[in-house]
Amino acid sequence: MSMKEKIINLSQVDMPKRWYNILPDLPKPLEPPLNPVTKKIVKPEDLQPIFPDALIEQEFSDKPYIDIPEEVLEVYSLWRPTPLVRARNLEKYLGTPAKIYYKNESVSPPGSHKPNTAVAQAYYNKQAGVKRLVTETGAGQWGSALSFASSLFGMECTVYMVKVSYEQKPYRKILINTWGAEIYPSPSERTESGRKILEKDPDSPGSLGIAISEAVEDAAGRKDSNYALGSVLNHVLLHQTVIGLEAKKQLEKAGDYPDVVIGCVGGGSNFAGLSFPFVKDKLDGKDIDIIAVEPTSCPTLTKGLYRYDYGDTAGMTPIMKMFTLGHTFIPPTIHAGGLRYHGMAPIVSLLHKEGIIDAVAYHQNAAFEAGVIFAKTEGILPAPETNHAIRAAIDEALKCKETGEEKTILFNFSGHGFFDLSSYEKYLAGQLKDYEYPEEKIKEAIAELKF
Question: Residue 411 phi/psi, 5° resolution?
Answer without folding.
Answer: -135, 160
